Fold this protein.
Amino acid sequence: MPQLTSRERFLAALQSALADHQLVKLTLGKYRGPDASLKNLSVRPIELKSGPHLSFVWRHTTRDLTKNVAPARAYAELEKLIGDPFRDAHLFTVGQTGQIETAEDGSARVRFKAAAAASPPAPATHDRTKPRLIDPHAGWLHALAITDAAGQPRTGQSAKFRQIQKFAEILQSLLAETSPAAAPLRIADMGSGKGYLTCATAALLGDRAQVTGIERRKELVDTCNRVAAEHHLTGLTFKVGDIAQTAPRLGDLDVLIALHACDTATDDALLAGIRAGATTLVVAPCCQQELRPQLQAPSVLAPALRHGIFQERHAEFVTDALRALLLEAVGFETKVFEFVSTEHTAKNLMLVAQRAKPDQTPQLNPAAVANLRAFARFYGIKQQTLARHLQIDLAAD
Ligand SMILES: C[S@@+](CC[C@H](N)C(=O)[O-])C[C@H]1O[C@@H](n2cnc3c(N)ncnc32)[C@H](O)[C@@H]1O
């Protein structure tokens, strides 16, 4: 019987790990393909409502793309990637770890090592009970009518409760990337509304953070200030104000948050954060109306865009993609992802921008400006609020 090649041995180990539900993780590295921004691919089992899947996370220089793949298709996809264009692969299963390294001439070396005894991996699941960052019994959650006295979400508030927990997880992980553990933080939440996420931010960070909610509706600000005082959320204050008129000074802010600030209020909030020197901007845009009258799609899309819902999603995509490109042009790295499942809210896109070189004065990146102008031109966009704020003329050649 012919001896298996190194690649065939590695693939056989992967195939049986998938078939026997023994896969813990697979990472593919040393990418040598055409996509200059692609770094690596990480694959893990995940349990979705529709059954077990493999979560493929494609890590690019400035963003991650996640795709959940059915087990039946996963092996065929991975087989095409291992060796070429990904030269290295690390396999972690319940029983062993394996590594394959492929040289430029296509020759490969594979090594396997027994793993320490462990029980089969519990797949990541959206339903598994997780430790919660925000205590469901917290008095402020009760006061804001999210949970009841037993710490259970009130009727109709489960989605909001999950959104609060998810937001806390995201914020914690973003701050871990940018700020030393105990460093003090100044945070503004613009368009803070009923204050759920602002209170969650203050509760998550405790004494470490000064958190200010800015909201134009005075009655909401009064309620939120009362809740913050009664429940000892120190460092948290709410102020009546219009986002466009808030002018924090340079050096005043570390983190800018604006979740569901309608239409161009998101752009105004981004500008306030940039001007104040924030290193992390977290926005969840909504009601993207501004570009709709200008938007010209290629004629091939016209039959599809006669449906209102596609027009709406198209406008959302163009608006938020342009925002991400503008932020990259002024020195931020961006990530765009769904921050809660669409079954919780349709307004679930989160755009995070982190200053790539916080210690340096931001410089306009001419190549990025050229890219975003080409993007704007393609869609017939001549003006957009964030571009105007940043003094980037979209219509210039
Ligand atoms: C949809 S709510 C979102 C509240 C909160 N950020 C959240 O996600 O749960 C939007 C809030 O932003 C406020 N808002 C919108 N535009 C604003 C502006 N220009 N200045 C201040 N507040 C604004 C509204 O009054 C409203 O309370």
Notes: Residues 191-193, 196-197, 214-217, 220, 242-244, 259-262, 265 surround S-adenosylmethionine (CB under 6 Å). The domain at 139-389 is CATH 3.40.50.150 (Rossmann fold). The longest strand covers residues 38-48. The chain has two domains: 6-125, 139-389.
